[in-house]
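Narrative progress, year one. The postdoctoral researcher (J.K.) led the effort to move from monomer predictions toward full complexes, under supervision of the PI. The following entry was the first complex the group processed end to end, covering 1413 residues in total.
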Amino acid sequence: FGLFLGLVLPNPNMLLAQEIGAEELTARFDRIEQSLAGLMQEQQQNQSATNNVAQIEEVVAKYLEEEKEQKAASRPTVTVFGRMHLEGLFFPEDSPGVDYFENPLTGDDVEDRIQFRRIRLGAQGKISPTGIYRVELDFGNPETPTFRDTYLGFEELPVLQTLLIGNQKRPLGLDAWNSNTNIIFMERPLPITAFNPNFRRIGIQSYGHTESENVNWQFGMFESSDVKSVGRYLGDDLQLCYVGRVASTPWYDQTSGGRGYFHVGVANMYSSADGDANSISAHQNQARFQTRPELRTSSQWLDTGTLSGATGYDTLGLETVLNIGTWQFTGEYLDTWVNRQADSNLFFDGGYVQAACFLTGEHEPWDRKTGRLSRVKPFEPFFLVNDWRGGVASGLGAWQIAARYSYLSLSDKDIHGGREQNVAVALNWYWTAHSKVLLDVVHGRISDHYPVGGYTGGHFTGLGVRFMMDF
Amino acid sequence: FGLFLGLVLPNPNMLLAQEIGAEELTARFDRIEQSLAGLMQEQQQNQSATNNVAQIEEVVAKYLEEEKEQKAASRPTVTVFGRMHLEGLFFPEDSPGVDYFENPLTGDDVEDRIQFRRIRLGAQGKISPTGIYRVELDFGNPETPTFRDTYLGFEELPVLQTLLIGNQKRPLGLDAWNSNTNIIFMERPLPITAFNPNFRRIGIQSYGHTESENVNWQFGMFESSDVKSVGRYLGDDLQLCYVGRVASTPWYDQTSGGRGYFHVGVANMYSSADGDANSISAHQNQARFQTRPELRTSSQWLDTGTLSGATGYDTLGLETVLNIGTWQFTGEYLDTWVNRQADSNLFFDGGYVQAACFLTGEHEPWDRKTGRLSRVKPFEPFFLVNDWRGGVASGLGAWQIAARYSYLSLSDKDIHGGREQNVAVALNWYWTAHSKVLLDVVHGRISDHYPVGGYTGGHFTGLGVRFMMDF
Amino acid sequence: FGLFLGLVLPNPNMLLAQEIGAEELTARFDRIEQSLAGLMQEQQQNQSATNNVAQIEEVVAKYLEEEKEQKAASRPTVTVFGRMHLEGLFFPEDSPGVDYFENPLTGDDVEDRIQFRRIRLGAQGKISPTGIYRVELDFGNPETPTFRDTYLGFEELPVLQTLLIGNQKRPLGLDAWNSNTNIIFMERPLPITAFNPNFRRIGIQSYGHTESENVNWQFGMFESSDVKSVGRYLGDDLQLCYVGRVASTPWYDQTSGGRGYFHVGVANMYSSADGDANSISAHQNQARFQTRPELRTSSQWLDTGTLSGATGYDTLGLETVLNIGTWQFTGEYLDTWVNRQADSNLFFDGGYVQAACFLTGEHEPWDRKTGRLSRVKPFEPFFLVNDWRGGVASGLGAWQIAARYSYLSLSDKDIHGGREQNVAVALNWYWTAHSKVLLDVVHGRISDHYPVGGYTGGHFTGLGVRFMMDF
């Protein structure tokens, strides 16, 4: 270009000026052409990306369309969930008295067993922004299915917060309130199963907590009869029970993500009973306390029988948990006063203390909204695979040890349901947050029992191993 | 630039010309530079958007990959569905005769009850573009599950349109044909439950409608025995029944979205019966008519017993519905002729009239493809939440009142199954399109019944409240 | 521009030079302007696409958020699956002996039946990258649900590969190992159902295959008792069985997609038995062999009864399959030695040969990882729809014919469980890969049976039609 200008403009003075102009002109042209070239190159690069946008738009439009259809149908959401617990139980040692408690007619020894303790399937979801439901069935004994949580209700209500109608847990006893997915031993301790048998009843209950989550409560009214296998209660007189529980975590270490906390709770249940000694009618007297021995047996080894004349009973529960990192210490106490009208009142009680420790550093997380154990998440899940170098790669899972002492007295005055003291130790291997293996050893001693086969007491040692998963 | 040209070209005439040229040149350069700057700025802005396209492409590619895999697997689609109906029933007034109809041995009064009327879980979907299936189980009495809709079939067939094989409803009686999710009272009226008991049978049925949807029909052939709890019918002689129904909405107000319509329908069922008086064999004589009293009781209060010698019966059903905005008027009539060969024929009949009205302005929508009630959608769902100002925000739901008069005669000649007249009123509160509360009061009078405990008639008043949800 | 330059520059020589320069200048300006115009146009076009990116980003961000939440929850995956088999069975010909085998007390003839052979619902998924589970329930007889596959376990383990704990199939007999979704006849042949009754037991099993998939194996240990309806085994003495199977496809035609292959397999099971003649105790002696006649009947027609004194038995199974395009030839042989201690040992055996051919050109695909039949995919699914021209469009589905000869001897020495020979033919119509119709005719002859109603043998002809679907 400079050359061309040189030819065009001969005057030297002009030439200088022109050359300056030419240089500027050249520079501007160069800049423009560079910019253009750059732009066109970018344009070309972007073109391939932008070309895909049309295709992407189709996909996204379809996705949005599906979402819109779902909303238009406004069907409730559905999440399918379930769990499976498979266990082996072995009784290497059982005294004759215990054999009669298990097999009252024959006195045969306590049989070992392999069983599905639970096979559950259910569905839950939201009906509306604040409406929820849950339906849950258990097929552990598949020929006799039973239901568990089966309710509908509302969340975010003023004052009542969450209000559920249907079959749901009575919040009496912390280890009853804990999910069986999260409990540390295979079975709940004696006083829990004796004073809040099978936990769930048909009723209505409010679930609340403060905004800071340091206090939570549950209040409910239920029909006392357990109808999980028949689905209906018949009777002109309801045997209503009223349950309330308040719990708090006065200490909760937010900074460590809840590795340290202190929980206290108190619960009370008043239940009316129809006073009938006869238990064959459709509306069976609910004043009866019984329990299995912290391992699943065929019979309830401790059993007061139906308490003739009992018109009501009141159960108090005290709970406390201290968690310090990998360690957890738990204690509960429950007692029950039974009003027998004509006869003198009865007093039954029980309690337990429990310590657990993670060997691999995890901790037992706490659900502050409902005041109970939450799900343990192993630092590293268990796995064992061939790695690419021909070796084996592995993950350890989480390992926990625990010990528990529990006692229960169902004997008072003329009633001899029995007294039992159990010591149990556990080794728990968490494969993942949703699968684990529990190993329990339970040794127990029973006394002050109505004579069965001539025996009023006995002792046993049982061993259990359980494979668990939930989804 | 103008300056530069001024230096270059001294001749004034030329200068003018050159300046014009220079101005034009300048203008062009300016325009080019502006355009470039604009373009580069836009380019830069778009760059950030375009940069994301690569990332978006990944997500979309993954989404498409998943979709492709699903298609490649060509698994049938699966939608999990279910429902839960929890109710309380109370009988504040029941005469001795009614007590004996409920408890023939003891004459105990009719018990109140709390029960899960239905707990259902199922799965449905498409096997192929025109192939469908549905499997549905009921766990309302969980220890004795039963199945409901359990079929497979094809849609879009020539002539037959939809053809289903398996357990499905017989289209006899509009309120039988209505889903229990959509019926206005808690239980169907007497003649429906008496002449089409439990609705579903194993069989094959065609479902069709005209393109304009103003006429629809169903034709099917079924085994008469209800096998919902055992899953099998044994017997060398099938007791087949043939059912056909044609329905039409001669008036349907499209412009208001179906707030006004007039429905008429006629259905007929001929069923063979094995004539055997003895009902203990595997193939039980199906000629027997019975019903509960429009609330769920333990016994069937009206009951012809097995009709010895009956070799067949024919049931006719007439249906009509008039819907005008919030108001709906319904009437049905059903009668049955029983052929007893040696003995003279029997004639039983029944019917009902019903009126319902939404207080909140909604209407009962109509499904014109199948000729039955569709799902009510409240204008505003029920909710109650704290609002951001510290007050309470609420939604009303939909409110409906209804009244029904029904009668049934199962007494003719030597047969005294009983006659019953019921009056029922209802108050329905729709929380959402998928959850609601029904409140029913039923008063009934029974006469001309075989003597039970010496009584041939009686009267009762029952009260029911039901919480319902489906997903 | 040329014109303008002409005015500005009068010198002819310069003019020429200038015009050349001007032309070049013009050309450059033109190019630049064209490029700019093009760029701006493209920019504008892209703008509309790019404008959507923001909107797309929102959707994608939401999608990613959902995915992230799912991962954070790290819930196990859940796939709901199931199947439904509905069948009619007819026995046009049955001799008096067979009638007594079916109805030992009355000798009534074999009843026809309509039944749901299977209604299954289940859930399966992954707990972790290598952890899996499956829960499956059968409601074919809905009042007595049973479980099928119900296990948890790990994949990709070193040596053991897949290891499952829970209720799962014992790999004894190819047609037992085949899914009932894929078997060619309605029911398995006599020796399969006699020597591996109901297939599944609670136990632990390893599933492996070579990387090339030409060899696969299964090894497991199980409790012998079938607890599918009660969910538990009680007994101090386990009756354990040990099963192993190795299978290979020495010939497998990869190039045709597996239309040609040759399979051989050998399996062995040793099972202990408690030797007790008495079968009423909780731990029933598992040494008993029985079977139905290749169609579902009420009774087991061949039956050794509980073999008193039997303390163990060993069953061997040999399998072979040759597939050449549409043709498949199958043969199996199984025998069992029973150790009776005091009494002499017993020997039972059986086998079958089977040929099947697709008339429509498909083939029976093979699963080389587990050594069994895979799912047939029709070339064209069955459908029948009105096309747009007013005619009917249709798809044929896949059609297959098959024949089978089987025999079984459960009679040896003092035991007369019976001998049976069956000939069966089948016509199978595959609607889709997930739905089909089976038509079977079975003719059988029984001899050497314990006398029942005075009969030691008999013959029968049965006809079955089954509608099947799975999802």
